[in-house]
Structure formats: C-alpha cells, structure tokens
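In this supplementary section we document a worked example of the pipeline. Step one takes a protein sequence of length 278 as its only input; no multiple sequence alignment statistics are reported here. Step two produces a three-dimensional model, which step three serialises into structure tokens for compact storage. The input and output of this example are shown verbatim.
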Amino acid sequence: MDNDFYLLDNTDKLNDIVRPFQKELNRGQRLADFLKQCIRCAGRDDFLQLDELLSSKMVQNVEQEEVLAECKPLFDELRQSAQDKVDRYRMELIGDLTSLGKEAGLDIVIDFPRFSILKGIDGEIAFGDRTTTINKRVMKSIDPRRIVTALGRLKKELYDRPFEPEKYVNSLHKTYVVICKADNLPAASPVAIQRFYLEYVISLQSKVFFTNMEKSKFRGYSLEQFSVDLWRCFESGITTTSQGMSFKLTSGRNFCLWLLDSTGQRKQISSISFQESK
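The serialised model returned by step three reads:
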C-alpha cells in the first residue's frame, strides 16, 4: 500500500518536472515549423502566403529567440520583396477584374479587397487563403475570370428575369393578410419576418407539390432573392399594392433576417407590416 502511494507520488512529481520541459519543446517545434513554412514559400515564390506568414505574430516570437536573432534581417528582406509582389499582383487583379467585368457587361465597383456589382451582390477576396467569397459563397480561387463568371451567374439569377413591382407587392400583401387572419391580428400589425418568409415561400408552391412533396416539385425562393426583390420595389418607388396598402420593414435583433432596406443597405429586419398609404 505504501509502495503504491510512493509510486503515485513520484509519478506526479516527474510529471511536474517534465511538463514545462515538454511545453518548451513544443514551443520550439512550432517556431521550427514556422521557419520551414517560410522557407518553402520563399523557395517556390509563393509571395501571397509568404506575405501572410511574415505579417503574423509568429515572426516576433522567432525574432525574440536569441539563437534565431539572425532571422530578423532576412525576414525584413523577404517581407519587403513579398509586399512589393503582392502590391503588383493586387493592381493587376483589380485591372483584370475591371476589364473582364466590362467585357461581360458588369460594372464592378472595387474597394479592395471588397467588390460589388449591384445591391445584394458583393464579395471579398482573401489573398492568403486563395479564396473569394461572393454573397457568403466561398470559391477556392482568386482568378478574375472565375470571379467575373460567378458574378454574372448570380446577376442572372437575381436580376435578369421579368419583375413587376406592383404585382410582387400584391403577392406579399396576400400572404400578410393570410397570416393576420390566421393569428387574428388587427390591421397594420407587424408580422415576424421569419414567419412571413416561410409563409410566402409556401404560397409559391403549386397544388401538385402539396399532394406529392418531391424535391423536384419544390419551387425555391432564396433569402437572397427575397432581399433583392424587396430592394427592386424600393428602387422602383413602388411599395404600395393596387389597393393602396404600403409595406414597411422594421429593424430589430430577435428572429431577424438580413435584408436590403430602402437605402440598399443590409440590415437585420425583424418584422413586416402593411398600412394604408398616406
């Protein structure tokens, strides 16, 4: 019994001794791995990734090590070279995006690394990750041609189709009335936007869908499309039904959807209501 106790006690003491030693070894390994990664990037002239690495906090950790002090002047030289190449690449990319966009009939507004073409269609380029995000869709490329192709495809999906603002507002009001009657709400009451969006999508389905709810028979209506359609109503100046009922979006934080408001800015919208137009 006593021997077991002493064995356990000694084991704990040894663990206490080795723990800081292992921690230091792990730290040293992280620094070595970082240096190897920098060497690989420099060797294959991967200036985008090298620029990211030499802008990270790990550089300071390396430079503070006495045995690695000679890395600093080398880091400074590599960093300047990488930054110069990144700047040239950025300018080329902006120029290519602009010219390719014009060829495709797209007016791309660039505030690097962000860009946009129309309200509700915007993106951001992440050099280090080699990715481009367009409306939260991540594309593993920063190739200008692929970016322009993706923008054109999204524009066609969201904007290049027949759209009649008054007819659309009438359809929104119809769904609003159905919800108010079902919930016994008085006129002009706010309806939760998440509930409204769900009911509106349901209203778009055919009678066939409700007798056989196959995926192929479902008519999708993305949140992106909902947001853009609302904006197109605001942009056209038509937010009133043929019966004189005007819709109003109310911002909030609970049970919200990110939608374009009357100024074309994405905001958290919590409810929608219809009121008599003044």
